[in-house]
Design a protein that fits this description.
heterodimer, A: 281 residues, mainly alpha, MetI-like fold, B: 335 residues, 2 domains, 14 helices, flat, Sugar ABC transporter permease (chain B)
Chain lengths: 281, 335
């Protein structure tokens, strides 16, 4: 009997073979650009431009990374990017949760206005507000500053919306108990409601963080000093200033992608579910 | 649940009303609510709502570095009549039509296999999703190297297997239909020749970027389809492909529709990939709406005209977003 069970299992596994082969092929094809990025980053210039191309670096040149870092301050770019991405992530969690809580739970003067603002902002893509926001930033005297990079994106309508949905679906009994204990509204938010929507906070943080991390156009429009460059902007500047040194360009690209991939590798379940949830709400 | 649904009276509101509430208490609740909302009100108000209004106002002026005066609808009339705007509309359409359906068609069998065949092999999901995590600026850089104009670039090397001459992919404005019709000696004029070679490279980069996202969204839809349905079809003697086509896809159609709309929005808004790969060229053959807007603003310093293009961009995305709301409300009803 145990023998037939083993055969069954083997048969089932064999049945999955085409699926395995297919998906392995898909994954291989999908990874080709990343493989090409890493191998080109490791080739000396002559090898990187050779015809036909070498399929792996025959003379690995790790000095490319040192050289790329010498030519442009990627550590500074990285620090700028982390700073702006963390600030917008935290901003969206704090400001978004407060507003979402107010929308879901309270009746207050200004509720209608907030709802209208959220609705209007969800509909208009950020790109379409870049030109007027550029003028606003300039008039506020924030051009070429961290404020310009962060302030407009400190809270997104989508974050408020996600929090409103989660707070709305909290069981009433939990909050009622706290209210009977004489909790203030803020205390109730901080100690009872906010901890209960942890997954939403993660989603909001991941989405805003990724959005800022990937932003290129906005930093391009509102900053000009090299010290304020974020990674994406620094990379495009490196491309135009660095000329034809593909190996150095790929080394710089590897440096800009590595933190994201490391982060993804350590928390992939969280990121995948966060992005899926963000898309589906 | 949709953002458009009216605020529902929660049981909590009823409870509060049942207890006699003093005016002071109510005023304090009023104030707390407002305090909670103030930061968002200010930030959304200035950088989103006011910005949208201001954008429309700017589009009615000839705003440039020299100053601004009211010109009414002149920008709109000139823009709609201009070749560059018509070009950018068609290019945007090419980009959207050339990426969204392909991505979804590729994602369907992958998601199906991941859900029903290889559910235990989480590594596949991670690998398929990885391109989406790579910042688009970086991935566009890599695609630019792969499609480099040197003889030894990966793309030109692969061409050489078929005995073809190396191409200058990213500065090639030839329409792909003209490439296909070349042996017949036929040449189609302008945009009739289809998307340029350069734009097609950008599309490839976009598909590579979006595939993992599409798979994850489809997987969440598949998770809602019960095993019994597939089992029943199998009992009736349906093969795996038949089940996918006649059972799973119809049940999944709300998710597919939703995915299509959200991918449309992403594609219309895409900037980084095109900016890094082609910068809108050659000869405007990859200049989408958002690329045109940035050029008018950033290079030509025509803020008024840029704002006009921005309004068109906003209107098209807003329309798509409304469709998306409508679908997500529908979706809930299916479940």
């Amino acid at each position: 009997m145990s023998e037939s069970r083993t055969t069954n299992r083997l048969l089932r596994r064999a049945g999955n073979l085409p699926a395995h082969l297919g998906l392995a092929a898909v994954c291989l094809v999908l990874l080709v650009p990343l493989y090409w990025m890493v191998t080109t980053a490791l080739k000396p210039l002559q090898e990187a431009l050779a015809t036909p191309p070498t399929l792996w670096p025959h003379h690995p040149a790790f000095s490319n990374f040192v050289e790329a870092l010498r030519q442009a301050p990627f550590a500074r770019y990285l620090a700028n990017t982390v700073l702006t991405a963390v600030l917008t992530g935290v901003g969206n969690v704090v400001i978004g949760s407060l507003a979402g809580y107010a929308l879901a739970r309270g009746r207050f003067r200004g509720r209608g206005a907030l709802l209208a603002f959220v609705l209007a902002s969800v509909m208009v893509p950020a790109e379409a507000t870049f030109i007027p926001n550029y003028v606003t930033i300039r008039d506020l005297g924030w051009y070429d500053s961290y404020l310009a990079l962060v302030m407009p994106w400190l809270v997104g309508a989508f974050s408020v919306f996600l929090y409103r949905q989660s707070f709305h679906s909290l069981p009433e009994s939990l909050l009622e108990a706290a209210r009977l204990d004489g909790c203030s509204e803020f205390r109730m938010f901080r100690s009872v409601a906010f901890p209960l929507v942890r997954t939403t906070s993660l989603t909001v943080f991941v989405l805003s963080f990724v959005w800022t991390w990937n932003a290129l156009l906005w930093p391009l429009l509102v900053t000009s000093r090299p010290e304020l460059r974020v990674l994406q902007l620094g990379l495009t500047a490196f491309q135009t200033e660095g000329g034809v040194y593909v190996n150095l360009l790929m080394a710089a690209t590897v440096l800009s992608v590595a933190p994201v991939l490391v982060l993804f590798a350590t928390s992939q379940r969280l990121v995948i579910s966060g992005i899926a949830e963000g898309a589906l709400k | 649940m949709s953002i458009l649904s009216p605020p529902q009276a929660s049981p909590h509101a009823a409870a509060v009303e049942a207890a006699p509430e003093t005016r002071r208490q109510r005023r304090r609740g009023n104030l707390t609510g407002l305090l909670f909302a103030v930061p968002a009100l200010i930030l959304l108000g200035v950088f989103h709502v006011w910005a949208s209004v201001f954008n429309v106002a700017m589009s009615l002026t000839d705003w440039s570095l020299g100053g601004a005066s009211f010109v009414g609808l002149r920008n709109y009339l000139e823009l709609v009549g201009s070749a560059e705007f018509q070009n950018s509309l068609v290019v945007t359409l090419f980009f959207v039509v050339g990426t969204v359906p392909v991505t979804i068609l590729l994602a369907l069998p992958i998601a199906y296999a991941l859900q029903y065949r290889l559910a235990k092999f989480h590594l596949y999901r991670v690998l398929v999703f990885t391109p989406y995590v790579v910042p688009t600026v970086a991935s566009a850089m890599v695609w630019g190297v792969i499609f480099g104009s040197n003889q030894g670039s990966l793309a030109n090397w692969i061409l050489s297997w078929f005995g073809a001459d190396p191409r200058q992919w990213l500065v090639d404005g030839t329409g792909v239909l003209n490439l296909l019709l070349e042996p017949l000696g036929v040449r189609l004029p302008g945009l009739w020749a289809g998307p340029s070679v350069a734009l097609c490279v950008a599309m490839l980069a976009q598909i590579w970027h979006m595939l993992g996202f599409a798979v994850i969204v489809l997987l969440s839809g598949l998770a809602g389809i019960g095993e019994e349905v597939r089992e029943a079809a199998r009992m009736d003697g349906a093969g795996e492909f038949r089940i996918l086509r006649s059972v799973v896809v119809p049940l999944l159609s709300p998710t597919i529709l939703f995915l299509a709309v959200i991918s449309l929005i992403f594609a219309v808004r895409e900037f980084n990939i095109i900016y890094v790969l082609t910068g809108g060229g050659p000869q405007g053959s990859s200049e989408t709406l958002s690329m045109l807007m940035v050029r008018q603003f950033y290079e030509d310093n025509e803020l008024g005209r840029g704002a006009t293009t921005g309004t068109f961009l906003a209107l098209s995305v807003a329309a798509l977003t409304l469709v998306q709301f409508w679908i997500s409300r529908k979706r809930v009803h299916y479940e």
